[in-house]
Amino acid sequence: MDNKIREYRKKKNLSQAELAEEVGLARQTVGLLENKSYNPSLKVCLNIANVLDTTLDSLFNPKSF
């Protein structure tokens, strides 16, 4: 799934580990998400968008589903 997690995470000056801790994921999972190797649940998507202060539409490309 196409996403902008890395871009938004860096704008917030968060490391992968910091984002993972705030969302309740493993750091490796954040890495997989950023590399588009993992399709998260809707709950995880919402949590990430909330932590990164953005919307789902801005963070994830709905055309890539």
UniProtKB/TrEMBL annotation:
Protein name, per record: Helix-turn-helix domain-containing protein
Residue span, HTH cro/C1-type domain: 5-59
UniProt-recorded Gene Ontology molecular function terms: DNA binding
Keyword NAD among UniProt keywords: no
UniProt keyword list: DNA-binding
PANTHER family reported in the protein's UniProt record: TRACRIPTIONAL REGULATORY PROTEIN-RELATED-RELATED, TRANSCRIPTION REGULATOR
Database matches in Gene3D superfamilies: lambda repressor-like DNA-binding domains
Species of provenance: Bifidobacterium longum
Pfam family, one: HTH_3
InterPro entries given in the database record: Cro/C1-type_HTH (IPR001387), Lambda_DNA-bd_dom_sf (IPR010982)
